[in-house]
Amino acid sequence: MLIFIVLAPFLLLLLYFIVQPQPVNIPIKGRHVFITGGSSGIGLALAHKAISEGARVSLLARSLSKLEEAKKSLHLAYGVDVGIFTADVRDYDAVKRAVVDAGPIDVLVVNHGIFVPQALEKQDLDEVKLMIDVNLMGSFNVIKAALPLMKVRKDNRPASIALMSSQAGQVGIYGYSAYSASKFGLRGLAEALQQELISDNIHISVIYPPDTETPGLEEERKIRPEMTNMIAGSGSVLKAEDVAKKTLDGIKSASFSISFKMEGQMLAIATAGASPQRSFFTAFLELLFSPLSRLITLLFLSNIYRSISKSHAN
Amino acid sequence: MVFFSLILLPFVLLLLYFIVRPRPVIIPIKNRHVFITGGSSGIGLALAHRAASEGARVSLLARSLKNLEEAKQSIRHSSGADVSIFSADVRYYDAVQKAVNDAGPIDILVINQGVFVPQELEKQGLDEVKFMLDVNLMGSFNVIKAALPLMKQRMDGLPASITLISSQAGQVGIYGYTAYSASKFGLRGLAEALQQEVIVDNIHVSVVFPPDTDTPGFKQENEVRPELTKILAASSGSMRADEVANKALVGIQSGSFIVPCNLEGHMLAMATAGLSPQRYFLMAFIEVILGGLLRLVALIFQWNWYRCIEQWHANNKGEFAIKELSISTPGPVYVCFIGPSSVLGRIEWSRI
Questions:
Q1: What is the residue range of B190's domain?
Q2: A173 close to B (CB below 8 A)
Q3: Whole-prediction pTM value?
Q4: Is A142 in CB contact (< 8 Å) with chain B?
Q5: Of A139, B28, B189, B338, which has the most beta carbons under 10 Å away?
Q6: Same domain, yes or no: B225 and B334
Q7: pLDDT in tens, A40-80
């Protein structure tokens, strides 16, 4: 213990020098924030927050009527006009048109997503394909469409690509094989993409919300397998505006991983893996709490597997 | 204080002994049906050789009938065993289902097919991205879905295995691998969820994480690899296909969820243990104790990689340089870490 107390400042100093990429601040005010899946849920809440901080916002979604409602509600709240664009993220050409019409993007928030929980044995492969196509391939489409203009921005200031994942993108849970596959995939994409774009001053953030009060969650709850609920149903449910606030703060500080509440922080430490960490202090916490978090993880998993066998025995 | 921590350790060990789930399992290979996708070459073929020589009944699935027939002959030559061959593209569920039904109930399903085209996302064609996601990820769902019903109905009461061949690029995303890493990370999400769904059927999920492996696929990949990808990937060395197959089979037989293949792989596995299950309480103990240290090692790797990237850009483009906060780098050429495996490695391929 004493050794550790002596060691700690050296560790902190080491971390201060080695954390990569370097910390950066990404201004939002007066900049162009483009949000996919922006007509409802977390996307819409993000639009509210970004506008209230002085950003110019564009929304992309499939339904024109939902987009127009969103536009109206935002105009009512802030007296500001947002750009709205309809496209299905699976259709690259439509996405490209929307992105070009919207104009050069400073903060790209890839937030759209679909979730249909079901045990793989029972799930239709079309549903699996839908989740992978929309959540994962769709994100590639959006990034690819927006990247060229992002790379040639005039203003030299740091830009951001933020990917909305989920706690299901940190741990796979019963019923989420397809959803977790798509969300885990976003992380692989993000880790590689950050290495590719760091020299263009573009910074990647991956956001891991827990269950959030959105129309999407309501739909999901109706069809969730019982076992999924048993395992994952007891976590906290956050309000969309709280998720939006923490998300935007994380984007502004270019944090690679953005988590919520104590359980989220624990999950983040447990799954830090080989992901980059810009904050030397957070890195220190990751080191400090890594043993405890793996222990807690193993307890958590033990619980899950016991519940599963107990439930099966009944 | 130190004394206190030392007292604690045996209690942690004891705790882990009692709590780790799922429990350890031994999955026999001999006389059981091993079905390998992408089995006509590379790691799949090496696995087939090994499984056949251990007395398993082997089936191979791949696209090219010609490659399959060559594989069949080479296995007959080396171990006298007869393997069944089935030609299908994993992207087409009906073809996969037909092959799986023809092959008969599967005990050990090895999902090994994969394509890899490394390229900066900015330069990469979206059809290549789609190709990798479709074959590596969606294709794996197709195979599992086709094989699961019969696997669930096995009569013999012995434990079965669904094994996914991932990659170290499925543990950490590297420059040039946005699509490939996305597909391989996805396999892990699938695996963690699937294990919870099939544990009651005595089916055990394993994910194997090889480094660069000397295969025809890799030779193709190496030709188009961006320079930076080569530099960064060299941190982990490479292995021969038969070495990977040996490690994989040992991992499968012990029902290990995560199966690393070389020293760097073990370190990566511990750093990225995340929320993966661990059946062996001793391994669990090591993960708990060393977790912090390995996170530090991972951070050091990232530090090295980002410095390499910066240096490379400075040398090659001469323009944008990231503001440096730390000690100045000596000289114009920055040497990237090379792990012990690559120093001892037997595969020679040209590096920059």
A1: 22-279
A2: yes
A3: 0.92
A4: no
A5: B189
A6: no
A7: 999 999 999 999 999 999 999 999 999 999 999 999 999 99
